[in-house]
Specification:
The complex is a heterodimer of chains A (about 110) and B (about 110). Chain A is mainly β and about 110 residues long. Chain A has no helices and 11 strands. Helix content of chain A is about 0%, strand content about 50%. The radius of gyration of chain A is 13 Å and the shape is globular. Chain B has a 5-stranded mixed β-sheet, with no helix packed on it. Chain B has no helices and 9 strands. The chains are: A mainly beta (about 110), B mainly beta (about 110). At the A-B interface, strand 4, strand 5, strand 9 and strand 10 of A face strand 4 and strand 8 of B.
Chain lengths: ~110, ~110
């Protein structure tokens, strides 16, 4: 089955630690995205990548970093510089210039 | 990009049609209307999109007014599994070098009741 996987589903970290969230897709999509969702809120774009080895900052990139070394993978690192890292993180992918995005199941990160 | 306005919540009886409105009065000619939904604690799911003609697929119908300033998503026979937050998004398609990102607001929380 084609789709997007995110792991783990729940993640707990201590404040001051960096943490990397995994996102893998086998849809052969060129474009991939990371969003953050806080309780009762819509989604906000963190980073996106239209092609391998290239990525752009979204609306709330501060405190986050990404890499896109392979077409199927777009990991997100939440660094200790992110002031409020506790949130629900969603990864998505799409064909280029296509707004029909396919989302993964999300990772719920809790930092204490 | 045009902004959208949706009611924060709606109820619908199971088996009845759910009609979810969206206002996008500042929409411009090259902007599409997209609908997504998000079931609790899951990733959003694409439903349908349209430019100016009405559209229908296996999930829903999208009715866009002639002046394109508003649209309605119709779930013809709502089930309990349709309980979710529904997002109306307006976005132009840029050819070449598009950012490709969608702007999700707070959406409409649809509760389907037995």
């Amino acid at each position: 089955d084609g789709g997007i996987t995110q792991s783990p589903k729940y993640l707990f970290r201590k404040e001051g630690q960096n943490v990397t969230l995994s996102c893998e897709q086998n849809l052969n999509h060129d474009a991939m995205y990371w969003y953050r969702q806080d309780p009762g809120q819509g989604l906000r774009l963190i980073y996106y990548s239209q092609i391998v080895n290239d990525f752009q900052k979204g609306d709330i990139a501060e405190g986050y970093s990404v890499s896109r070394e392979k077409k199927e993978s777009f990991p997100l690192t939440v660094t200790s510089a992110q002031k409020n890292p506790t949130a629900f993180y969603l990864c998505a992918s799409s064909l280029p210039n296509n707004y029909e995005q396919y989302f993964g199941p999300g990772t719920r990160l809790t930092v204490t | 990009d045009a902004k959208t306005t949706q009611p924060p919540s709606m109820d619908c009886a199971e088996g009845r049609a759910a009609n979810l409105p969206c206002n996008h009065s500042t929409i411009s000619g090259n902007e599409y209307v997209y609908w997504y939904r998000q079931i609790h604690s899951q990733g959003p799911q694409y439903i349908i999109h349209g430019l100016k003609n009405n559209e229908t697929n296996e999930m829903a119908s999208l009715i866009i007014t002639e002046d394109r300033k508003s649209s309605t998503l119709i779930l013809p026979h709502a089930t309990l599994r349709d309980t979710a937050v529904y997002y109306c998004i307006v976005r132009a398609v840029h050819y070449g070098g598009s950012q490709g990102n969608l702007i999700f607001g707070k959406g409409t929380k649809l509760s389907v009741k037995p």
